[in-house]
Write a structure and sequence with these properties.
It comes from Aequorivita ciconiae. This protein has 6 helices and no strands. With about 150 residues, it is mainly α.
Length: about 150
């Protein structure tokens, strides 16, 4: 299980970093609305991790699947947050100020506030996506008698 969520967590983080650098290359990295695609990247990474883990098991238990999803997204969120902190503190000091200005927030809060926001958004996205995917992938508790009465 550790191999599954660490592998997919790292791949998800790399995809997030590549997407950000692609936006930087194009010049669109200062538009926070484009971070919606980060949710799609998280979704693909978590879903693939859950499918991989579920394919090696006879039955995917909810709590084990939830653990895989949370750790996959958690690893990706932490790695991406570390990358963004490095980027904002070492490479582009004006990036955080520009984002905070576009949010109409005080720039005194600056980079630390943005780093914490990135981590919180990553963890919350992971929680929501993992819970949603587990609803799709869990085994139904419906009985055979109940199943014959459905379409």
């Amino acid at each position: 299980m550790i191999k599954v969520y660490s592998t997919y967590g790292i791949f998800t983080a790399v995809a997030l970093i590549v997407y950000f650098l692609l936006l930087k290359l194009i010049g669109l990295h200062q538009y926070p609305v484009l971070s919606v695609v980060n949710g799609l990247i998280f979704a693909v990474g978590i879903y693939l991790a859950l499918k991989k883990y579920g394919s090696s098991r006879k039955e995917l238990k909810f709590e084990k699947g939830f653990e895989v999803g949370m750790f996959t997204g958690g690893i990706a969120a932490i790695i991406f947050t570390i990358f963004m902190a490095f980027y904002m503190y070492q490479i582009d000091n004006e990036f955080a100020t520009a984002i905070m200005r576009s949010w109409n927030m005080e720039t005194d809060l600056g980079t630390a506030m943005l780093v914490i926001s990135i981590l919180i958004m990553g963890i919350v996205t992971t929680l929501v996506l993992t819970f949603s995917f587990m609803q799709l992938l869990k085994r139904s508790w419906n009985t055979q008698d109940g199943n014959r009465n459905t379409l």
